[in-house]
Design a protein that fits this description.
The complex is a heterodimer of chains A (about 100) and B (about 350).
Chain A lengths: L1 E7 L2 E10 L4 H8 L9 E12 L1 H16 L3 E5 L3 H10 L6 E2 L1
Parallel strand pairs in A: 2-3, 3-4, 4-5
Antiparallel strand pairs in A: 1-2
Chain B lengths: L1 H33 L6 E6 L2 H11 L13 E7 L4 H12 L1 E2 L5 E2 L14 E6 L18 E7 H12 L10 H40 L10 H9 L4 H9 L4 E3 L6 H7 L5 H23 L6 E3 L2 H13 L3 H13 L5 H14 L4
Parallel strand pairs in B: 2-6, 7-8
Antiparallel strand pairs in B: 1-2, 3-5, 4-5, 5-6
Helix pairs in contact in B: 1-2, 4-5, 5-6, 8-11, 9-10, 10-11, 11-12
The chains are: A alpha/beta (about 100), B alpha/beta (about 350).
Chain lengths: ~100, ~350
């Protein structure tokens, strides 16, 4: 899993590539740690290159969402491929996290 | 000359007054929070030197020393509803030492044919039993004024203040009638807000009782009633059953986003929602089983229960993929994800003979 974080017009773009699973979830947590502070974050997670997420990945996205909401910010996930989207749908996570 | 002495003492103690004001506000904020009382405003100020000078010029003869002036520190609590003034006044009386001789309930001063400024003014001290601070020597002896008024009374006071007249007796008689009319409207509005709030609370208690007693058909479906229904965790058994598919953790998210979907589906009462739960819980579980088994996904959201129940009902009622697309649009808005998802679910439903 490659994680690329950049800033564009006041928005933080997190670009994910590859599989997010038990083998790399800790690394992912470290990569996004800087985003877990500051007021009113505006985070967009670009999933164009993400091919899979496990339950551990779902937990990470949930943690991010909670952190962002508690700081009055917003988080959306975009460009999700059908396989990854299905994981969000069948677990009910589409009801929790905004997916555009 | 004595006014100059009063002003000198004021300048010396200015910082101390600020500290006392902050203690009062912090104490009130804490106690209001502990008692779950939400107010429209809590504000305080220390009288400015300019304002004090003006007061002394007008009424200096009334004050011998600075401590004779009781509104150097002023704190105000603004309630949303007029009937909350009494609740908060009872709280204030428990917290502070009240100087009853100088406290005024202006609400009781108005005659039956008069309208106008209504507010509760207390003159208080911070009792030593509440707090002491050696760095603020006069913390427990300095008096302060505490006003409690409703938001509309606050509006009235500010509007009248804006006219430039300190009291209604000074207002030219030709404008007095207009001001009285306006005060009457505000007083009426205050009463109506309190009455409406009481009626809404009575309605909610009645609905909660009907839901608790299982009289679902008598309960119309709306945001309030759906929330009450959800508080009884009607889908918990189904959620636990779905969670066992992968020995999954259940994440308790809100079901409120589904209220719109239920309305779109034509449900009129909580009884309609309950019937859907009873009629389709097995099918909703079967759908979850075909979707989750073998995936190893060991976390599911509680809302997956209502999601699957709605999906099953839409398909059983013959609305097909188009019905599912409408459901997803009601939940997430128009999206390119909706049609493929509907198609995928339709195929899964065919596999398990749901349709």
């Amino acid at each position: 899993m490659n994680v690329n974080i950049s800033n564009q017009e006041g928005k933080t773009i997190v670009r994910l590539d590859g599989r997010l699973d038990t083998s790399n979830v800790e690394q992912f947590q470290q990569d996004i740690a800087p985003l877990m502070q500051g007021e009113k974050p505006n985070i967009e997670i670009d999933c164009t290159g993400m091919t899979y997420t496990s339950s551990q990945g779902l937990r990470m996205f949930l943690m991010m969402q909670k952190s962002v909401m508690s700081r009055g910010g917003k988080m959306v996930m975009i460009h999700m491929n059908p396989q990854v989207k299905e994981v969000f749908d069948i677990t009910g996570f589409s009801n929790i996290i905004a997916i555009l | 000359m004595h006014c100059e002495m009063i002003l000198d003492e004021y300048r010396e103690r200015r910082q101390e007054f600020e500290q006392i004001k902050n203690v009062v506000i912090d104490t009130l904020r804490q106690r209001l929070e502990n008692n779950h009382i939400v107010v429209a405003g809590l504000e305080g100020r220390v009288k400015t030197e300019k304002s004090l000078t003006g007061k002394l010029e007008l009424k200096g003869y009334k004050y011998r020393i600075l401590d004779d002036i009781t509104d150097i520190i002023g704190v105000r609590i603004i309630t949303f509803f007029s009937d909350e003034v009494d609740v908060i006044s009872a709280l204030v009386e428990r917290i502070f030492e009240i100087d009853w001789e100088n406290s005024v309930d202006k609400r009781k001063m108005l005659e039956i044919d008069r309208f106008g400024y209504m507010s509760l003014h207390y003159i208080c001290r911070i009792p030593a039993s509440l707090c002491t601070d050696p760095t603020i020597p006069q913390l427990n002896t300095t008096r302060f004024e505490l006003q409690i008024r409703s938001a509309l009374q606050h509006v009235w006071a500010n509007m009248q203040h804006d006219t430039g007249y300190k009291s209604d007796v000074e207002v030219p008689v030709e404008h007095q009638r207009s001001l009285n009319r306006l005060a009457g409207i505000l007083e009426l509005a205050d009463e109506q807000f309190s009455r409406i709030r009481k009626e809404i609370n009575d309605y909610r208690r009645n609905v909660q009782s009907l839901v608790a007693n299982g009289n679902f058909n008598e309960v119309p479906l709306n945001g309030d009633t759906f929330r009450s229904y959800c508080e009884h965790k009607p889908f918990k058994r189904l959620a636990d059953k779905i969670a066992t598919i992968n020995q999954a953790e259940l994440y308790e998210d809100s079901l409120m986003p589904y209220y719109n979907v239920l309305v779109h589906m034509g449900m009129k009462t909580i009884g309609d929602v309950e019937r859907m739960r009873l009629d389709y819980r097995d099918s909703a579980y079967q759908l979850a089983l075909i979707q989750l088994a073998g995936t190893g996904l060991d976390i599911v959201a509680y809302s997956v229960t209502l999601q699957n129940l709605c999906i099953v009902k839409i398909l059983k009622d013959g609305f097909g993929e188009a019905g599912l697309i409408r459901m997803f649009a009601a939940l997430y808005g128009e999206s390119s994800y909706n049609a493929p998802r509907a198609q995928r679910i339709y195929q899964q439903a065919q596999k398990i003979n749901l349709i």
